[in-house]
Design a protein that fits this description.
15 strands, globular, 18% strand, six-stranded antiparallel β-sheet, alpha+beta, 415 residues, Beta-lactamase, Diverse_Enzym_Activities, hydrolase activity
């Protein structure tokens, strides 16, 4: 009975969305909300009110021009706690309303969802060890003192590599780009400090290809996304998927929709270890469910529980120095952020030492909390249409409200 009522209410909401999507005017929240029960029962007192505050936060971000639209999907104990689409996926050259099946350019979410996942798959298969040096699989990379850089260094962003090498290094094609990356010098010794690096994940993607004998795209599709039933996750999109994609910025005065925004990934043909992946909230929900369930989804095991633990265990990294000269530390996992300056999606309530997630430059983010079996998926198109949007405050707001909805912070409330 409960599921029948849910389907009926969802259908009415979808019909309302379809009719509302034809109107013009200021971007407003549209789409449908499907809020399930918690643990098979009714919502605890106040949860609905907390979740309604997410609506207000997203609406405000749209009204202030920080993003054209958004999709929010919150999972709790393997059920959808909150699902909603807001605003527009495209405003120029013509308006297209946001829908739940909109694909987003994930930008740096590519790092954990594609590249780190592929590395851990090869680790589980015995084809890689995180302690292996990159040079073991790519001898040319040892140039300029990089012979001791390991896969673990790259996964944790502690290799000592530059954040991004010049775009000119990619101008003549992939072959020359890899040659120039192999000749890069280190800014500091491996393991000494955390420096977020796109180059490091480009290198990891290259290692996956060298070891597997397949492109990163093909390997991830066959070993990860297809087994997980992630039907709208890929680097290269069909024409239908492009039409369903959220807009980002411009390239040579052409609005980007269904084409990678990151310039280095674009020059590498759209497939790279640091950026280039597209996906939907529904697909990312399947990925998050798999992680929260220890590597299994719908009775199919993709990773052993021990592999997921190895993958998501926080590890201390040196972030920098305080004004007094004291060393400041943070936490990262193999591919995920835990506690660094990039942790806005954690909000104010999720644990600082064991929840994890990641952000993407285009306005995307994930945050997962194994303790409460919660995942917060926030996908926005903040770069559309003028590349001026900022959703960092929204990430923090949504993360805090989601944590509050699943029970964090309740003990701090005054009677």
């Amino acid at each position: 009975m409960q599921r029948r009522e849910w389907l009926r209410s969802s259908l009415f909401a979808v019909l309302a969305h379809l009719s509302g999507g034809k109107s013009g005017g200021t971007a407003a929240p549209i789409g449908y909300t499907a809020i399930s029960s918690l643990a098979g029962g009714l919502f605890p007192s106040g949860v609905s009110e907390v979740l309604k505050q997410i609506d207000a936060a997203v609406q405000q971000a749209i009204e202030q021009g920080e993003t054209a639209g958004a999709v929010v999907h919150i999972l709790h104990k393997d059920r959808s706690l909150y699902i909603k689409a807001f605003g527009d996926r495209l405003q120029q050259p013509q308006r297209q309303p946001m829908t739940m099946d909109t694909l987003f350019d994930l930008a740096s979410l590519t790092k954990p969802v594609a590249t780190a996942s592929a590395v851990m798959h090869l680790v589980e298969a015995g084809q890689l060890r995180v302690s292996d040096t990159v040079a073991r699989y790519w001898p040319e990379f040892a140039a300029e003192g990089k012979e001791k850089v390991t896969l673990e260094h790259l996964l944790l962003h502690t290799a000592g590599l530059i954040a991004d090498n010049p775009l000119a290094d990619y101008a003549a094609g992939a072959k020359q780009a890899w040659e120039r990356i192999a000749r890069l010098k280190l800014l500091n010794p491996p393991g000494e400090r955390f420096r977020y690096s796109d180059v490091g994940y480009l290198v990891l993607g290259r290692v996956v290809e060298l070891v597997s004998g397949q492109s990163l795209e093909v390997f991830c599709r066959k070993q990860l996304w297809e087994p997980l039933g992630m039907k709208d996750t890929d680097y290269k999109l069909t024409e239908d998927q492009k039409r369903r994609s959220a807009g980002t910025g411009r390239r040579q005065e052409r609005m980007l929709q269904g084409e990678v925004h990151d310039p280095r990934a674009a020059l590498l043909g759209g497939i790279a270890g640091h950026a280039g992946l597209f996906s939907t909230a529904q697909d990312l929900a399947r990925f998050c469910r798999m992680l929260l369930q220890g590597g299994e989804l719908d009775g199919k095991r993709l990773f052993r529980e021990s592999t997921v633990r190895q993958w998501t265990t926080p590890r201390k990294v040196t972030v920098g120095q305080s004004p007094s000269g004291a060393v400041t530390t943070g936490l990262r996992t193999y591919g995920w952020d835990v506690d660094t300056p990039y942790s806005a999606p954690r909000g104010d309530l999720f644990p600082r030492d064991r929840s994890f997630g990641h952000t993407g430059f285009t306005g995307t983010s994930l945050w997962l909390d194994p303790a409460t079996q919660t995942a917060v998926i926030l996908l926005t198109n903040r770069l559309h249409p003028d590349e001026k949007g900022n959703v960092t405050p929204l990430r923090r707001q949504v993360g805090t409200l989601a944590a509050q909805a699943v029970g964090y912070g309740q003990a701090k409330k005054k009677p």
